[in-house]
Amino acid sequence: MGDIFRELGHLFLQTVPTVIFVFFLFVILNWLFFRPLTAILRQREAATSGALARARQQSEAAETKTREYEAAFQSARQEIYRQREAARQTNLAEREAALQKARAQGEKMVQEAHAILERDVAEAKAELERTCRPLAEEISESLVGPGALAGGTEGSRI
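Above: the chain sequence. Below: its structure as tokens.
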């Protein structure tokens, strides 16, 4: 067992310079390579996460503005619909008033025409009465003879 410890001690002594060399290499690499690389990676991470945070904020701001724009657009659209409806109601009221006026004028014209027609009918009856009496007397005289109806038909109408 003593030989094993002696051999292990001898191997340990042979590896000490390699271990020291590896340790110095680690320290030098850490100081020259890994520290600057780690610092650059941290800066890169900070810049990336900062850019992502700014992008999220800008995205949220854009979404907010989009919602505001859509709300304003919807409000404007509703206002246009209200104006259209008001104009339509006004036009309907004007149309209804024009129709009522036209109906009243038409009714008045019909009444005037009816009155004129009744007057014309009355005049025609009166004229017919005036022209029929002498014609009837003439026909009676030609059928019965002159003077035969002179006493009995004066007051009667034909």
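The longest helix spans residues 2-144.
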